[in-house]
Design brief:
By secondary structure, the protein is of the alpha+beta class. It has a single domain (4-164), classed as Aminopeptidase (3-Layer(aba) Sandwich). It has 4 helices and 7 strands; from the N terminus they run βααβββαβαββ. Residues 4-157 form the N-acetyltransferase domain.
């Protein structure tokens, strides 16, 4: 595995986070109300509060000190130990294994540190890169959800994936 690791976002990362949301393919990743560096700093503080409350954990994927992408798990069901995963990679770092390595690291954290049993994720069917990330990180395809997402007046099918704590670690 590369030198990639996960770390919590810091408020000093706000300008980079805001710039990342302006990159190619990132329009659907930007949370509502995040349009300034101050907004991005507020979002990072909110992520820290969510982590402290055990609701979600959001990490920057880094190589040394350079931010390459993001991994996030949201607690979907504490009773059933299920988390929902989302992720993205900065455009200039795509194709380097950032997403798949980051997702493997996040999955291990979720299983070992958070005690989750099942992790779920999904992607638009017209996003083969996201599919490669999920399958490379050991997430098995479980099905298609028809016209689940609506962006700019267009409905998109999604493909769902999951990984269990009992699944073998991917190579």
């Amino acid at each position: 595995m590369t030198g990639f690791r996960l770390r919590e976002w810091e408020t000093s990362d706000a300008a980079l986070l805001l710039a990342a949301y302006g990159g190619a393919g990132m329009a659907t990743e930007r949370p509502a109300g995040v349009s300034t560096v101050e907004d991005a700093g507020r979002l990072i503080r909110e992520w820290a509060e969510e982590a402290a409350a055990g609701k979600a954990h959001t990490f920057a994927v880094v190589d040394a000190s350079e931010i390459l992408g993001q991994m996030r798990v949201t607690m979907q069901s504490s009773v059933h130990s299920i988390g929902w995963i989302s992720y993205w990679t900065l455009e200039k770092h795509r194709g380097r294994g950032v997403g798949s390595t980051g997702l493997k690291l996040l999955a291990r954290y979720c299983f070992d540190e958070l005690g989750l049993f099942r992790l779920e994720t999904g992607h638009r069917v017209d996003n083969p890169g996201s599919c490669r990330v999920a399958t490379s990180a050991g997430f098995l395809v479980e099905g298609r959800e028809r016209q689940k997402l609506l962006y700019d007046g267009v409905r998109y099918d999604t493909e769902t994936h999951a990984r269990l704590a009992t699944d073998p670690d991917p190579a």
